[in-house]
Each structure stands twice: as structure tokens, then as C-alpha cells.
Amino acid sequence: MRTPTTLLAAMLFFAGPALAYTAGVRAAAIENRRLPEFPAVSRGWEIVPEVEAWATAHLPFRQYAVRGNAALSEFLFKEAPSYGTAGATDYPRVIQGRDGWLYFGDDVTEACRPRRSIAETLERLHRLAGIVRGSGRRFVLTVAPDKTTIRPDRLPARFPGRTCLFTRKREFWAALRAARLPGYVDLRGPLERSGAPAYWRTDSHWDEHSAGLYGTELALALQPGLSRDTRLEKVGQVPRNGDLGGLLGIPVEETIDRWRLVRDGVRRVRQDDRESPVSFGTANTSDRAPLYRPRTLLIGDSFTRNSLPWVLPYFADVTYLRGDAPRERIMEKVRRSETVVVEIVERHLVGGRAGLLDDLTLDALDRALSSSSMTAG
User: What are the domain boundaries of the chain?
Assistant: First the structure.
């Protein structure tokens, strides 16, 4: 028989987020993803673990609890806390490297606890490309490499999951090169050859110079000469707190270089941000630098979202859409496009967790585009 204390604790755990919301307290998205939505109760008892995750994510003042836990761990053990699953290896949320470099622990978790095999993930990428191309649309795919791939030189000599991380990465990149995916645009090579740090020291994402490189590589793949009358200019330095410091619960500041993309003669004439930050459209005109004219849909994760100032000015008519947008929204935006550009971060492919490659999404896309085929431009 449950005690009154147990029942009170359960009520506070599940009702706490709602009560706090009523009082004006909002949960903070301190992780590199959206706060989860409440699962559908029609699925029965199988939603219990998801309800628990929802309640935990929406607990009021959660960010302060994380900071307190981090500070206590640093004081007692001289290291950041790890957050594992009962009975499983505890992989750190943040890996503290040398010279102040921080790395996102999900790189390790995805590699060491994959949902799908690499072969199955690549098969699904082939299917996605086939569905889009089969409808007469152009398809382009890019993979945003993990920070642990581009800058492994600052990782510590030892950390949980190091062996499976690098084993799985080697397997993934070898298989990706051999797969010859239609429309694939390599970003790893240009980032490694750039000679620049490529990623911010305290953040899981690439820096502004690399965002500019991303835009340039897309332009080169989409249309010869598209990058003409274009330059990347350094415009100074500013202090910045990276997202990984937030995950540690101890904000960490670094000084970053700021870069600006200059495309001579390009001017934005429209931006429809009614659906922002999930999706928005942009239209540009130019009397000098060339623009890519086909209606383009740019589907991506936070790497693309952070890179938009260095990508959008190459297009006459482009729509950005988050890769985890509702399925119906994805279908709608793809149907309206002539070119579809997809960016997926490496860890989601290594772990086989890219939502765009789920069976329901691929099946729905296949049905939607089979009834809206077009002539390729």
C-alpha cells in the first residue's frame, strides 16, 4: 500500500510543471534539443517512461538544479557530473577536454548505444534520395561532422566510451564514402582542410567561419559560378557563452571571431517568419551576384539553423524547415519545392536516430510525392 508521502511526491513530480506554468515559471530548454511534448495517452501504459521524461524536462527551476549539481560535482570530485541510465555505462553529458575545450557527450552515447546499424541508416538515406529524385525534384544531402570528428586533438586521453566512439565513427565514414549517395556533398574534407579551429571551444556547433564554408560548399554543388562576387569577411571579436557550458550548469565564456557573408548586389525582399523557429521562407533579389533560382527547401538541425545568415543569401526563393518538424509540415514543404537540401548531424546518423529516416516519415513522403511529381529543372 502506498504511503501518503509517496503519493504526494508523485503528485508534485507530475503536477509540478503545470502548477509552475500557472505561476508564471517556464522550464528552460537547457539541452541542445526542444523540450519534449506530452505523449499521446491513447497508447496506454507504454507511455509511462515518456511521461517521466516529459515531467523531468519540464520541472520548474530545472536549470538551477543542474547548475547546483554541477558545482557540487566539481567541488567534490573535480569533474563534471555524468548522467547515465540505471544498469548501463554512465556517459558524461559533457566531455571536458584539454585547453578548455568541451565536447557534447551525445556523440559518445549515440555511437555506443545505436538504434540502427550503419548499413540500415545508409539504406534509409538511399530511400529518401530515391523518393525525392523519383518525383522529379533535385536532392542534396550534407552531413554536419561531430566536433569529436573534426577536433579530436583536444579530447582527454581517457573517457567512458572512447573506444566505441572512434570505432563506430570509422565504420560510419568508411561506409558513407562507399555508399555513393545521390546528391551527397562532403563537408568533412573542407572543414579539415580549412586550417581553422572550425568549432567553438565551448559549444557543440561549428563556428561562423565554418558556417560560411558550409554555404560555399552548397553553392559549389548546386550551380557552377554561384559563389561569384561573394566573400567572407572577419568583422571583429565578441565574448560568447557556449551551449556546453550550459549543459555543465556552469556558464563558460570564450572570445569568438565574427564573420560576415558579403554577396555583392544581393538584397532580401521578403521573409515569412510566421512559423519561426520551425520554418520560415526567404526571398532575395540581386543585380550582381548570381542566385539559385529553383524553389528550395532546406531541411536541417541546429547546425543549419545557426548557419542561415551564411546560407540563405545564395537563394532566390528558399524555405528553412527543422528536421524534427511535424510530419505533415514536412510533406507540405517538400511538395512546394523544386530542390530539397537535407542536412543531418553525424551523431544522429551514427546512432541511427534521425527522425527524417523513420518508416512513418519515409512512407508518408513516398505517398505525398507520388501524387505530386514534377519535371526536374
Answer: 1-36+49-60, 116-240+257-370
